[in-house]
Specification:
CATH class of the largest domain: Alpha Beta
Bound molecules: pyridoxal-5'-phosphate
Number of domains: 2
Radius of gyration: 21 Å
Strand content: 5-15%
Oligomer: single chain
Distance between the termini: 21 Å
Order of helices and strands: HHEHEHEHEHEEEEEHEEHHHHHH
CATH architecture of the largest domain: 3-Layer(aba) Sandwich
Number of strands: 11
CATH topology of the largest domain: Aspartate Aminotransferase, domain 2
């Protein structure tokens, strides 16, 4: 193949944003400062006026959310086995125990029907994940949390720009965590943001973000709790501000491209398509499932031969050595294991063309047609 590889994703960063980054670099103030504050204000606007604080990663936001919720040793947090491993790692990081609940194969998100059976007297929080930007049903989720007096830390790393019942993800609920990793729908290269519930003092969140330092008007300071080193730079915030201007357009473009995949993928290929949600989902990824008999490694290699990048997001996390070592085993979460073993991520990003979608569809036909 002579055509260059079509990657699974590529950030869209405009010249105005690049100029804004250069201006920050020339300004003499390159770490957290006015750009971070402006970025937080713009994110708060997106989130219905709720307080938002920016971080240097989505992993840091999740960890700080758990700490702010008072979760630690002896506590259990319920989440999904089908997510980026960061989701469960942060539960371990704060000393708590991840309790996994299998997915609903129809949504590939945590099965809301099964959550209550996993709740114990030690359960303190639910950590749902909006995989591929498809939101977990917020009405049912918060009904469960309310009945059992649990906190919710929404891992919305993949769902900025998505909505539930017409309301933007982040504009309601308990803690909501976004990631701005390079591959996410909105990027700061690396970064994240935490939307705070009304009972959490944003100043406390800021101390958890930066060494626990509290500064007073007279210039003195104190440290009365252990904080991390999780602040975002102004350089990164300038990227984020440029991205936010395009978020609606990025989401619309992703939806349009996902629709094209549904129209143009050959149904004879026996791919299992993701849920066709064009109202709530932000189409962070387009992920068909391969037929069970198909060798995924060979498929990925053959697609690369055709010039098409293919990703895997994600194998079920309880099968990783670290989690097996904690007692998890194969067979425990059969739906997550099946999806995790068959899922492939096809190219989908705002700068992709219709012709690119056709290229992917042609390559799939060449590789999969019996
Ligand atoms: C990307 C991601 C994270 C972690 O975000 P980082 O910014 O990479 O730390 C957490 N959970 C999910 C579901 C993600 O996709």
């Amino acid at each position: 193949m002579s055509a260059p590889l079509l990657p699974i994703t590529r950030p869209s960063i405009d010249e105005e944003t690049i100029a804004a980054v250069c201006a920050v670099l020339r300004s003499g103030w390159i770490t957290s400062g006015p750009k971070v504050q402006a970025f937080e204000a713009a994110l708060a606007e997106l989130c219905g006026g709720r307080p938002v604080r920016a971080f240097n990663s989505g992993t840091a936001t999740l960890e700080v959310a758990l700490r702010l919720a008072g979760i630690g040793a002896g506590d259990e947090v319920i989440t999904t086995p089908l997510t980026w491993v960061a989701t469960a790692n942060v539960i371990l990081e704060v000393g708590a125990t991840p309790v996994l609940v299998d997915i609903d194969p129809a949504t590939r998100n945590i099965d809301l029907e099964r959550i209550e059976a996993a709740i114990t007297p030690r359960t303190r929080a639910l950590m749902p994940v909006d995989l591929a930007g498809l939101p977990v049903d917020r009405d049912r989720l918060y009904a469960i949390a309310g009945r059992h007096r649990l906190r919710v830390v929404e891992d919305a790393a993949q769902s900025i720009g998505a909505s539930w019942n017409g309301k933007a993800i982040g504009s309601s609920g308990d803690f909501v965590s976004f990631s701005f990793h390079a591959n996410k729908n909105l990027t700061t290269c690396e970064g994240g943001a935490l939307v705070l519930p009304a009972d959490i003092d944003p100043a406390l969140c800021e101390r958890r973000r930066l060494q626990g330092v509290q500064r007073f008007a007279d210039g003195s300071m104190d440290v009365d709790l252990l904080g991390g080193k999780f602040n975002l730079t102004d350089v990164a915030a300038a990227v984020g501000l440029g991205q936010l201007r395009h978020l609606d357009e990025f989401t619309a473009r992703r939806r349009a491209l996902a629709r094209l995949y549904f129209e143009r993928l050959d149904p004879a290929l026996a791919l299992e398509l993701p849920p066709a949600d064009f109202a709530n989902c932000n189409w962070h990824m387009f992920q068909p499932l391969l037929p069970a008999a198909c060798d995924r490694g060979a498929f990925i290699a053959a697609m690369r031969q055709q010039g098409i990048g293919v990703g895997v997001h994600y194998p079920a996390l309880h099968l990783f050595s670290l989690y097996r070592g904690l007692g998890f085993r194969a067979g425990q979460f059969p739906h997550a294991e099946s999806v995790g073993a068959r899922t492939v991520t096809l190219p989908l990003f705002p700068a992709m063309s219709e012709a690119d979608v056709d290229r992917v569809c042609r390559a799939l036909r060449a590789v999969l047609k019996p």
